[in-house]
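Response to reviewer comment R2.3. The reviewers asked that we include at least one raw input/output pair. We reproduce the pair for 6-phosphogluconolactonase here without editing.
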Amino acid sequence: MPGHGPPADPILCSFPSPQVLVESLAAFVIKVQREAVEKRGKFTLAISGGSLPKNLNALIGKPGVKWDLWQVFYADERAVPLDHPDSNHNLCTTELFSKVPIPQSNIHPIDASLLDDLEELSDSYEKELIHEFAQKDSARFPVFDLILLGMGPDGHCASLFPGHELLSEKDRWVAYIEDSPKPPPQRITLTYPVINHASYVAFVAAGESKAEVLKTVLDDPQQGLPSSRVRPVHPGHLYWFVDDAASALTQYPRSELKV
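Raw output as returned:
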């Protein structure tokens, strides 16, 4: 279980096309799931939105995916109804969960009855995490088996944006943001202490539009972009799944993916 120790260096895996990236990501998710199930009989996962849910389509129909043992949370969520087009839960349901045999009780969306009170909404979601993790784990923060993140053109991840006060949050598991620079402005998000206690964190970024910011995140982390601050503590692992277009500018060394 991750504890105190040096943060993990990123492992950069670059693939010749988005299609190869997606297939490799699916194999990686299945590997992490297998490890988790062997250890504890379940697989805890947090997913962000954007293009990530569609990138997980390659898991549909794959042998070895034990959907009944998944426990799925959201790395961030917009404060909108669950059927709203901006909802990460709606996106994940449309792109993935409606197409696979995962029990509804294993998916943990926000409580949409609390949208008018962001503090209550984030507290409620933190209680969902406490119910899943705190009763069984002695760690101060939950230890997800895997957190999957995208990266915005400004280097943001989950709903952690450049220059925002949430970047320095040290205690809360789930925090809210009322002034997201990207609409919709009201959201909740997992904090760095939670993200950086995961056993595995994997970013997914594709396309030449990500090349400049990926170079900054990997080659110049002292700039402090939000995605640079994701550094799981030992023995956690940090992977970047990118295509060659996204990695064209970075000098960071590539690694072969082992699954």
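The mean pLDDT is 95. The chain has six helices and nine strands. Further pairs are available on request from the corresponding author.
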